[in-house]
Structure formats: C-alpha cells, structure tokens
Write a structure and sequence with these properties.
12% strand; alpha+beta; 600 residues; 20 helices; 8 strands; eight-stranded mixed beta sheet; Alpha-Beta Plaits
Length: 600
C-alpha cells in the first residue's frame, strides 16, 4: 500500500510539470497528506490493540499444557511480534516448532516455520526466510494443508526474487550464493506457478492477484515481456473480483510503473551498460505507460496533443541516448581488445622463453610422479593385505567366541586345547515346549522353524542380560548354566530371574499369536558339573553330571507356564522369590524329590 502511495506521489509531481492546473496538484497533495495522517493514526491504534492481545497471550502461556493449544499460543505470539520485534517472534516460533515436533503436530510445525520465515524476511534476511518457508512447505505437504502450502509457495517466490535483486549486497548461505540471479528468478517463477495452481483450487482471490502481480514482476526482470503482460492481465482479472474495474486498472498501472522504474534504477546504480537493449526497452515501456496514463487523464484535445508530442519527443531522446551509450560501449570494447592483444603478445614472448625450462621441470616431475605412484601402490597393496588378514582374524575370533566362553577360547588359542574343569556350585536351567509335536502338525515346517528361531533368540538375549552361559539347544529344548566359567555368588538368583523373564515372554507371545506359538515348561536345579570341549571336529562346549540330569527331571515334572525348582535351588532363592511347595514328587530314576513352583 505504501509503495502505491509513493508511486502516486511521483506521478502527481509529473502532472504538475506537464502544466495541469495548479489547484489539481494541490488537491491531490492534500489528499496524500491526509492519507498518510490516517495511516499513522490507524497504525498507532492497531499497535495498541496488538499489544493488548500480546499481553493476554503472555498471561495464558504459563497456564497452557504441553499440547496443540500451547503451540498455537506460541505461534500467535511469534506472528504478533514479527513486525515490531522480529527476534522475539523467532524465539516464540522456535519454541512452538520444538513443541509441535515433539507432539507430532505437523500443521503446528508448518505454522511455526511460516512465522519464522516472515520474521527473517522482515529482518532483511531472505536466505533464512527461504530456509524456513521451505520447511513450512514440506510440513504443510505432509499434513496436506493446502492453504499453508499456497502461502509458503508465494513467500518462497517473493524471497527468491528479493535474493536475485540483492544478491550482490546480501551475505547468503553457500548453498544459495552459488545460485545465479537467473536461477533464483527461475525458482521464484516455479514456486509462484505452483502457488497459483493451489490458489485457483482454493478460490483464494487475494493471494491469486498478489501471485500474478509478483509473477509479472519476475517475468519483467527475466525479459519476458509477453509473459509479464499476460500475468498482469490475470492480476487485473482477479483483482476485479475484489475491487471495481477503475480501481483495478489503476493498481495494475501503478505496479507496472513501479517494476519498470525499479529495474531502471537498478541498471543505473549497478552500471550494467552491457544490457543497453534491455535498458532501452524498459525506458520505452515506462514512457508508454506514462503516456497512456496521461492520455486517460487529459480532458481536452489540446492536452492530449501536448501529451503525445511530449511522448514522441521523449522517445527520440531515448533513441539518441541509447545510440550514444552503444557507441561509447563499442569504443570501450575496442580499446579493451587492443589492450588485450598487447598483453597476449607480451605473454607469448614470455611463454617462448620459459618453454624450455617448463619442459625440463615437467620431465623431472613426471619421473618423480611415477616413483611416487609406484611407492603408493606398493604401500596400498601391503596395507590392503594387512587389513584383509586382520579382518579374517577378527571374523574367526568372533566365530570362536560365539561357540565358546571367552576364557575357554583364549585357552584354546594359546595351548591348542582346553582341559575340562569341575565346577562345584552352578545352576542349570532346562526348558521344553509343550505339545511341540502337535504344533508341527498344524504349522508348516518353515513357520515352525521361524517360531523356534524367534523364541530362542529372545532366550539368548535374556541369558546375556544375566551373565548366563548358553550351552545348547536340542530340538525344542534349551539348556543353559549360571556360575561358570567364572564363579558368581548369585548364580541361582540370576537363573530364576532369567527363567521368569522367559516365562513372561512366552505368555505374552501366546496372547498375541495364540496357536501360532507354544507353551513352555521350565526346570531349574543347583549343583556341581564338569564342563569342557567335546570332540575335535565341530567341537562344542558342554556340561555333564547329575545336576544336568536333575534339572531335566525338574523340567519334566513341571507344568505348562510354570517354573519348577529343586530343594537345593529353593534354599538359595527363598529370600528373594515367593515359592509354592509342591511336596515330594516322583522323578524318573530319582525317586521322590521336594519341588517348588516359583510364584510370578
């Protein structure tokens, strides 16, 4: 709005110079002053009302919970501060974005990024504005928020145009500074075309007319006069849906004069003399627009003739000035070519004198390069061989540790063999799946193997958690021992804790899969064992002794979904776990044995 008032003021001064009645100029000047006064008063009232709204938001902010309502309060604060205190606006919008991200509130993230982009644009930092408007666009696309997408695309186009116009003055990020002015304008045009497509779907006339106006300005800077003309027509068309025809036409003409005038000033300030044809075209178009305006405002035939005469005179003056500039540019070019030819001649003479020396240096350099390449290749090959050996060694050690306990593996590597050892006090666990044979009948072989693999992997993880050594699996049975190869004081408690976790895992899996998994029986016993390596091919670490057999009997005497422990284990864990005495139960080859269920 302020831009249009300035253009209107400039046009009024030109009308005075063209001998219009003095009272017309004075009347328009008075109207402009009144407009500025009303604008200042309105701004003061709006600021007072805005501050009251900010104060109310600040009172509500500490009371708000960590939810989407608080995100909206923070974004509203950022939006209200962006014109008066952009840094405060960025602070509150950043808080809103962080909270919206934690909540997964994508529309809130888009709104926060939009506010931050607006704040950085007002801080005259279009590079950061582009960054946050782009984030806003992505978040709005994820949330399918078409309105916010439209606003973000429009803002991206506007800020890319601003960067193209001020790229020499701004310190942009590396990712943007490498983009040429024309590429920035092309990006701006692309974003605006996408924005227009969405705005048409939404029927957003306000943004449509603004987008077409911005697009026309970009096309003008690109030298696309026909495209700019068509865009201004569309701008006028959608503006008519909001204002009347007369006001629409006036706004379009003012925008065109502003764009051409801005380009003309830019050419003059930066001294872009190489684009004389475009400069001439801009000047002619500006004169034509001014001529059409004055013709529409002229009231008599004499005034119209005077306007036409002045227009033709100005056109001739532009032609003369353009020819003079062209001649001056050609003279400068000829002088530059002459100087360049002299420099090239001197350079050729120096090159001739230095060529022999360069040949000698090049020969030495080539020889040194060959030697360096040979040495580097030999070093690289040697290093590659060492890495391959180290990698294979690491793989073999990892495989060995996967089969044997670390202490046994070290002994095997050092001595080539590992002696069997007696362990006086360890705890053994046996598990077995109930109805495994019947499960095999209702499940395919692959499903059966997959379910076994899933369960045993979970068991392995639990064993690692409690420092328990897995021994082996036999069919659907799982054997592990706590308290070796290094003695552990709480081996019985660790084993019972692991058994409880295994049982809970299977119970939850049964609830989820139903007939797709198994029920489990678990037996635990504490005693002595002998442990060592069996065989020389496909060797395995194993344990032997009556303790292993007794643990197996505990499992066989257990019930589905129960952990059955012996009297020996009970004495070690009764202070930590609730146990249910089952009485003396007959066990195969063992007779009557006292047994307990772990209550879990």
């Amino acid at each position: 709005m302020l831009r249009k008032q300035v253009v209107f003021c400039v046009n009024s001064k030109k009308l005075k110079n063209n001998m219009l009645p003095d009272f017309i100029f004075r009347t328009k000047y008075a109207i402009i002053l009144m407009g500025f006064a009303l604008f200042a008063c309105g701004t003061a009232v709006a600021q007072k009302q805005g501050q009251a709204y900010i104060d109310s938001l600040l009172r509500e902010l500490p009371k708000a919970k960590e939810d989407t309502i608080k995100v909206r309060i923070l974004n509203d604060l950022g939006a209200k501060y962006n014109y008066t205190k952009p840094d405060e606006g960025v602070k509150y919008a950043q808080q809103g974005m962080d909270l919206a991200t934690r909540l997964g509130f994508r529309r809130g993230v888009a709104a926060s990024c939009k506010v931050m982009g607006s704040c950085y644009a007002l801080k005259r930092d279009p590079g950061m504005a582009v960054e946050y408007y782009w984030r806003c666009l992505k978040a709005a696309e994820d949330a399918y928020d078409r309105s916010t997408m439209s606003a973000a695309l429009f803002a991206l186009g506007k800020n890319f145009q601003k960067m193209a116009e001020d790229s020499a003055k701004l310190r942009l990020p590396d990712s943007l500074s490498r983009i040429s002015k024309m590429q920035m304008l092309n990006r701006a045009e692309n974003y605006l075309n996408r924005a227009i497509f969405i705005q048409k779907e939404l029927g957003d006339l306000d943004l449509l007319q603004a987008s077409y106006s911005q697009l026309a300005a970009i096309q003008t800077l690109q030298g696309d006069a026909e495209g700019a003309k068509e865009s201004y027509k569309q701008h006028s068309k959608y503006l008519e849906g909001i204002y009347n025809q007369e006001k629409s036409t006036e706004v379009v003409k003012s925008d065109m004069q502003y764009v051409y005038g801005k380009k003309q000033e830019k050419l003059k300030e930066e001294g872009e003399q190489k684009d004389l044809a475009w400069q001439k075209k801009v000047q002619q178009q500006a004169l034509k627009n001014e001529y059409e305006k004055k013709q529409s405002e002229a009231k008599t035939e004499i005034e119209r003739q005077a306007v036409k005469f002045e227009y033709e005179l100005n056109l001739k003056q532009v032609e003369i000035e353009s020819a003079q500039k062209q001649a001056k540019a050609e003279a400068e070019l000829a002088r530059a070519r002459t100087e360049q030819e002299k420099k090239e001649a001197i350079a050729a003479e120096h090159l001739k004198q230095e060529r022999k020396m360069i040949y000698a240096i090049s020969t030495v350099a080539v020889l040194m390069l060959i030697i360096a390449i040979t040495a580097a290749y030999a070093y690289r090959q040697k290093r590659r061989d060492h890495l391959a050996i180290a990698k294979e060694k690491q793989r073999s050690e990892a495989l060995l540790l996967n089969i044997l306990p670390a202490e046994v593996a070290e002994e095997l590597k050092e001595k080539g063999s590992a002696a069997a050892k007696y362990f006086d006090d360890v705890t053994v666990i046996f598990t077995d799946f109930v109805g495994f044979t019947k499960a095999g009948e209702r499940m395919s072989p692959q499903e059966l193997v997959n379910e076994l693999d899933t369960c045993f992997k979970a068991f392995d993880g639990i064993m690692v958690k409690y420092g328990i050594e897995k021994i082996k699996t036999v069919g659907d049975a799982y054997l592990a021992v706590a308290g070796l190869p290094q003695g552990v004081q709480d081996h019985a408690r660790n084993m019972v804790s692991a058994a409880i976790e295994i049982l809970h895992f299977m119970v939850e899996r049964k609830k989820t899969l139903g007939e797709g998994t198994f029920e489990i029986r678990i037996g635990v016993h504490t005693g002595s064992v002998v442990a060592g390596i069996v065989g020389v091919r496909k060797f395995a670490y194993d344990i032997w002794g009556d303790t292993v057999n007794t643990a197996a009997r505990m499992e066989q005497s257990s019930e589905p979904g129960k952990i059955n422990i012996s009297q020996t284990t009970y004495e070690l864990v009764k202070d930590k776990f609730a146990c249910i005495y089952r009485g003396e139960i007959h066990a195969k080859n063992k007779g009557g044995m006292k047994m307990y269920f772990i209550s879990c």
